Structures are given as structure tokens and as C-alpha cells.
TrEMBL record:
Residues 1-298 form the Myosin motor domain. PANTHER family: DILUTE CLASS UNCONVENTIONAL MYOSIN, ISOFORM C (PTHR13140:SF706), MYOSIN (PTHR13140). GO terms for biological process: actin filament organization. One of its GO terms (molecular function) is actin filament binding. It comes from the Eukaryota. PROSITE patterns: MYOSIN_MOTOR (PS51456). The keyword Cell membrane does not apply. InterPro entries: Kinesin_motor_dom_sf, Myosin_head_motor_dom-like, P-loop_NTPase. GO terms for cellular component: cytoplasm; membrane; myosin complex. It comes from Spumella elongata. This is Myosin motor domain-containing protein. Keywords: Actin-binding, ATP-binding, Motor protein, Myosin, Nucleotide-binding. Belongs to the TRAFAC class myosin-kinesin ATPase superfamily. Myosin family.
Length: 298
């Protein structure tokens, strides 16, 4: 059930110049990185990561990326890999944390061109903006690791969007510099998946699918029926399941989760307890108290 991480990570490790990897303090074995240790350990059949890396580089060139731009993208990819290896030691009776391997942070800082002291501080502290000032909150090792992972996701997201933007610009302008009116829209999303336990990411994916389903229902059924009525066309009422209650439920959960994240000592348990207290007025159920913090959105 555990798929491997994004292909680009393995392509970089197995296809990039060894001298450059060494310069960036990257070891070529996937087993050395926390973010690449979450799968089942099985190598995909008939998949040559080194050959695919060459294809990726060629695709960057074809889409108009300069060597410097491609180089920067690969730098950030390597920085993301290293981020997962940053560890934290508890301090102040476990209330705070400090980076246990500053050499890794130094390597990341070089790749991202940022100050290592500022990055170190940011990984183990969080700032909340009040009306009059900024409040610094120390993070325990668990919270610091969550902050580290959040930074890695944001970096990947920013790189991904930058690549898409560049490709879109390349695709819509011809050799004469004129814009094309035509476009091809591609939507590639994960579908609903059945797991014993859904992660936060899967909840977000399911929420996205619920929103798409709601939009589909509106365009195909509601809007089309209204158009028929405006034109005086008699049509039968088509019954369909409205999922707006599920959408509002998940949005309410996200809002309360966002509020909990802003509380200095907010935890998943305190948020879960609040969720249970409001369950009588919602579509959330708690099937089994013995299995911990598990709930179901009906």
C-alpha cells in the first residue's frame, strides 16, 4: 500500500552527475533519506531512474528552461531531500528543541542560499503575529519535525508551480511572439482511496473530489435544468445525491484545525476532543473509542 515518493528524487540520486551530488553533500543511496524510507522497499519493475533523469533534463531544455534554471530546480530538490534528515534534540525539559545535526542544515542553507542561523532558528521556533507584535513560540522535537516537513512540502509546491508556469508560457507563445487562443486543460488528481486510516493529505484529496463532484452536479443537473426552465422546455427531475453537507463538514473541520494550530499548546488530541464535543450537531461519527483518535465523516 505504501508507494514510493516522487520519481524526481530517485532520478536525481541515480542519474545526476556524481561530482555535483558530492558537492551538494548528497549521498546517492535512497536509503539514506527519511523521505525515501516510507515505501514498502520494493523497486518498481522496468523503471530506469537514471535514464528517466536524462529524459527529464531533455524535457526541461525542450520547454525553454535555461541550464541555470534547471540547475536551481535540482538544487531545491536536493535541499528537500536533506530537510527530511534534520533531527531535533529536546531542551528545556522537552518544551523546546534544537537541531541535532547542524551540518545538514548548513548544507541545506547553501543549496537554498539562505542564512544557516536563520534557518536553524526557524525550524525550532514558530512566530505568531498579534495586533501589536510578533510572538515567538518554541517547538518541541515533534512540532519541530512537523514544521520541517511543512517547509519541505512548501518548497516542493513552489517549485512545481514555477515549472508549470514556465511550461504554460512556453506553450502559449509561438515563434513570432504571438499568443495562442487555444489551450489544452489537463486535470490529474488522485481518486477516492480506501485505507485503514486516512492521512491528512488523503482527507484533502477527498475534499477536493467532493468539491469536483459538487461542481459536476451543479453543471450537469442544476444549471442545465434551470436553462431548460428558462427556455420553457419541460423536463423530468433527475434525482442526485447532494454532497454539500459533507463539504461544509470538512470545511468546518479545516477551520477548527487551523485555529487549533495557532494555539501554543494545541495538539491533535485537543482538536480531536473539541471535534467530539461538537459531534452531536454534525455529520461526524466516532466508530470505536478503543482505536484512538479516529472519526468518520458521513
Amino acid at each position: 500500500d505504501k508507494a514510493r515518493n516522487y520519481h524526481i528524487f530517485y532520478q536525481v540520486l541515480r542519474g545526476m552527475d556524481r561530482g555535483l551530488l558530492s558537492k551538494w553533500r548528497i549521498q546517492p543511496e535512497a536509503k539514506n533519506y527519511l523521505y525515501l524510507q516510507q515505501d514498502d522497499g520494493k523497486e518498481p519493475v522496468n523503471l530506469d531512474d537514471a535514464a528517466q533523469f536524462a529524459e527529464t533534463e531533455a524535457a526541461f531544455t525542450e520547454m525553454g528552461f535555461s541550464p541555470a534554471e534547471t540547475h536551481l530546480i535540482l538544487q531545491i530538490v536536493c535541499a528537500i531531500l536533506l530537510l527530511g534528515n534534520v533531527c531535533f534534540n529536546p531542551i528545556n525539559d522537552g518544551e523546546g528543541s534544537e537541531v541535532a545535526n547542524p551540518g545538514v542544515v548548513e548544507a541545506i542553507s547553501e543549496l537554498l542560499c539562505v542564512n544557516p542561523q536563520i534557518l536553524t532558528y526557524s525550524l525550532s521556533n514558530r512566530s505568531i503575529e498579534s495586533r501589536k507584535s510578533m510572538i515567538a513560540i518554541v517547538l518541541n522535537p515533534q512540532k519541530a519535525a512537523e514544521s520541517r516537513d511543512s517547509l519541505a512540502r512548501q518548497l516542493y509546491d513552489k517549485v512545481f508551480l514555477a515549472i508549470i508556469t514556465k511550461i504554460n508560457l512556453k506553450s502559449r507563445i509561438n515563434e513570432d511572439g504571438e499568443d495562442f487562443d487555444r489551450c489544452i486543460g489537463l486535470l490529474d488528481i488522485f481518486g477516492f482511496e480506501i485505507f485503514v486510516e486516512n492521512s491528512f493529505e488523503q482527507v484533502c484529496i477527498n475534499y477536493c473530489n467532493e468539491m469536483l463532484q459538487n461542481h459536476f452536479n451543479f453543471v450537469i443537473f442544476t444549471a442545465e435544468k434551470n436553462l431548460y426552465l428558462q427556455e420553457g422546455i419541460v423536463c423530468e427531475t433527475i434525482e442526485f445525491k447532494d454532497n454539500i453537507d459533507v463539504i461544509r463538514e470538512i470545511e468546518g473541520m479545516f477551520k477548527s484545525l487551523d485555529e487549533e494550530a495557532r494555539i501554543p499548546k494545541g495538539t491533535s488530541k485537543t482538536w480531536f476532543d473539541k471535534l467530539k464535543r461538537g459531534a452531536k450537531l454534525s455529520n461526524v461519527s466516532f466508530p470505536n473509542r478503543r482505536v484512538g483518535q479516529v472519526f468518520v465523516v458521513k
